[in-house]
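Data availability (excerpt). The following record was deposited with the supplementary files.
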Amino acid sequence: MKTFKSFLTLLFLFAFTTAAIGQKLTLDQTLNYKSGDPSDWPPELESIIAAPKNHKVLMENEKVRVLEVTLAPGEVEKLHFHQWPSVLYIQEAGDFIDSDAEGNVIFDTRILPEPLKFPITMWKNPEAPHTVTNLSKTEYIRLIRVEMKQ
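Predicted structure:
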């Protein structure tokens, strides 16, 4: 059984890496996301604790944690953080706003010069407490987040 789980894990990582390499990065990596020292952030705001409805653990070991992240149309995600650097594979999304713990807008898709084209693969450093609001009335936000534990 362990061998089968290891095989599935390797197969998933291979498929994810292959898909990620083939994607064109269209987001500016200098977005105004707050980072910092995760040890300073309240532990109860860790993503799978603070927003378990939106963050499903698909796989976890001592090196990585793979999350499936979803937000329904019109949903506002609870305040949370991501303590490790990660690769995001954003499969689909309509317009959304990402805000910091004080309510300041970090990123608003509506101000982009042209709509995002999905899928998108991007790198993220640890993210300080933030919340995402799905502005779409019809589209889900769906992504896979691979967190690199240190």
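Summary of structural features: The longest strand covers residues 64-71.
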